[in-house]
Amino acid sequence: MGPKELMYDINSFLIAAVLLAAMAGAMWAGRQIGKRGARHHNEESKSQASAVQGSLLGLLALLLGFTFSLALNRFDDRSRAVVEEANAIGTAWLRTDLLSEPRAQEAKTLMSRYGIIRVEAGRVPASQEERRLELIGAAEELFAKLWAVASAEAAETPGPVAMGFAASLNDMIDSLGARDAAINRHVPEPVLFLMFATFVLLGGVLGYNSGLTQVKAGFPIYAMLLLIVALVFMIIDLDRPRRGLIEVNQTAMVAVSDAMMP
């Protein structure tokens, strides 16, 4: 399942709140340091601090854009995987009508149970790894039974019908694997840590510059910082499937499962 991520099980709101508190603390500490050293600085050194502040803002904007793009792409991949799996299951379901009896009815029963399990798997938070693996195992067991039906059909009545059903089953299990893999792909944590560190450092530089110039940070500064924290929260929420405010739409999978109900 890959290496354990440090922040994955921590609530997104808590991460955003801690980040905001760390930035506020860095601003306060930076302002105190700036005030104490203000008399030792001239206009050139103050301009240098302002230039560093602008550079950090540009770097943070770059990191935010890059990280948001990664999180959004992974969210799109998960959404696409749901639709593709639903289409693969629907195709296999339609081809059960072409099988000979009693295999057609057996395949329909197995497909219906398979659909129910895949819908249930889509509702389990990705953090509940054991339950998710249990449902994947149950789906794979049903697939093995469906493959046995396809093998028996191919042995008894070889032809395009049997081959077509087997091909649809192959697509179905491939889509299961692709969807499961998409859930495990996240924005690399080193990228998030770098973004957080840049954010806190920016807070310190803003406070330091404020202390040097003896000008308190105004509303625009705090509004910008709150917006950055909101963007960080959105990135984390997008990157966590089946939890938080933003969730992948499961309508396609629910619809195909309902269509297979007896």
Features:
mainly alpha; 0% strand; rod-shaped
Descriptive account of the structure:
The chain is an all-alpha fold and 262 residues long. It has one domain. Helix content is 79%, strand content 0%. The longest helix has 53 residues, at 43-95. The mean pLDDT is 84.
Summarize the structure.
With 262 residues, the chain is mainly alpha-helical.
Spell out the blueprint of helices and strands.
Blueprint: H1 12-37, H2 43-95, H3 103-123, H4 129-156, H5 160-183, H6 189-213, H7 219-238, H8 251-259
Helix pairs in contact: 1-6, 1-7, 2-5, 2-6, 2-7, 2-8, 3-4, 3-8, 4-5
Number of strands: 0
The whole-number mean of residue pLDDT values reads 84
Largest sheet: none
Strand fraction band? under 5%
* Amino- and carboxy-terminal Cα gap: 35 Å
Order of helices and strands: HHHHHHHH
Query: How many structural domains does the protein architecture include?
Result: 1
Low-confidence stretches: none
Q: Give the overall silhouette.
A: rod-shaped
Radius of gyration: 27 Å
Structural class category:
mainly alpha
Helix content estimate: over 70%
State the helix count.
8
